[in-house]
Amino acid sequence: MSSKDCGHHEEERRQLLRRIVGAIVAFIVLILLIIFLIWIILRPTKPRFIIQDATLYTFNFSSTSPSVTSPTPNILTLTMQVTLAAHNPNHRIGIYYHNLYAYASYRNQQISLATSIPNTYQGHKDFTIWSPFIYGNAVPVSPFLLSALQLDQSTGTVLVNVKVNGRVKWKVGTWISGRYHIYVNCPAYIRFAGDRSNAIGGVTPAVKFQLLQSCSVDV
Asked: Where is the signal peptide (predicted)?
């Protein structure tokens, strides 16, 4: 085989390689263009949450001296029911909610058990209402919460954050996406009346607070 033939075959290999690289680049550009067009057409928007109200049954914080029988001196008991409204703002996208759990938090410390929320499908522009009970019986809490609670009580308002964790899936036509984590944080301002100089005790009878407060949502 002459050097001329070898050069010819080498040129053919280069041309083939350029075609392969060009086809790969064109395929990637096509995929990106399709994704961009889908985004432009569908305009996906994460769901919106509002905490409408909260009914407080018990909010009792007790502090005792630690002992062998009671090594944790600070405990909190909480019982409340909240009404959460979720709105799907999308015109062409449905939302599946899976494995949702609601719980209460005070100053970034969980103060209740996690309450399960039923799996739900939410159609285009739909609203969904949940009213979970949130409770925690003698939950151990950090010592610094005592002074924080007393300070909040002196002002007459305690901020309890109602949080929701779970998974969502998007539905477009017959196509359903994989699961994505959703994290919702709803501020609930609980007001206390009466003598604020006493230690925080139980709430009897139940007190309902109209909140209508928007929640932060991360997906």
From this structure: none
